[in-house]
Amino acid sequence: MADASMDDLAAEFDAIASGAVLELMASYNVAPTDRVPVVLERTDEPPGRARQLHAARWGLIPSWAKEPGGGPPMINARIETAAQKPAFRGPVARRRCVLPARGYYEWRRGPGRAKQPYFIHGDGGPLAMAGVFEWWRDPSVPDDHPDRWVLSASVLTTTPVPGLAHIHDRMPVLLTAAELPDWLDRRNEEADALLDLARSAAARAGAELTARPVGPEVGNVRNNHAGLLAEAVPAQLPLGG
Q: Which of 36, 46, 78, 138 has the fewest CB atoms within 10 Å of its CB?
């Protein structure tokens, strides 16, 4: 969920905002394939302009894909296996990014169909979710068209910190300001060391998260308003939930 202004996010992450990202509206219920803000470094920019804030499709499109809708959107990648997966191997080594968000929703499931949504967030500032990105060339668009290249991204996930394990068995990999320079550095291709860095950071950053129950409206992406964040009386899940 991203509800900060793009100018504020650019300032928070010391990045230059691209023109397209400034068009993004606040979203309180982001859906797969929606455009979301991402922070990345460009290798073709002069010093001082390398770190940029862009708008990216949430759901990575591999560079070799024939079309963007060839399967379920790849919105997440498990940090334990991402470096071995064909779609993520190159991005993990050379195209890492951060997806800033105020928080995220997760569902606690009970027996049968019982479930309760939670909004999981930090102390008010944006979370820095570690991710990877890719550029995909749309063959249906002419070479001189500005939309010929599609930027897409996925969030890396890991095992949850103890305080969140009762809600879900995964959580986003979260970075602190100290890890951002190494994670975003496109010249660093030591994937194993960077993934270890991210796992360690996630354990520390995740311990600062707070989860509050919210209403079931978040289950429908057509609902997108600030009221979704309001605390709700949690559902009474059956024993064992």
A: 46
pLDDT in tens, 149-202: 999 999 999 999 999 999 999 999 999 999 999 999 998 999 999 999 999 998
| DSSP class of 182 | H
Angstrom distance (rounded) from CA 179 to CA 186? 14
* Joined tokens for residue 114: 């019982």
Cβ distance 53 to 39 under 8 Å?
A: yes
Q: Look at residue 42 and give its three-state secondary structure.
A: coil
From residue 30, alpha-carbon distances to 35, 62, 119, 188, 224 in Å are: 8, 21, 13, 31, 8
CA–CA dist 201, 61 (Å, integer): 27
Report the SS3 class of residue 83. helix
Residues in the chain, how many? Answer: 241
pLDDT band at 241 (very low <50, low <70, confident <90, very high): very low
232 pLDDT above the threshold of 70? yes
Alpha-carbon span 170 to 135, nearest angstrom:
27
Evaluate if pTM is beyond 0.85.
yes
> Which one, of 162, 134, 8, 22, lies nearest residue 74 by Cα?
134
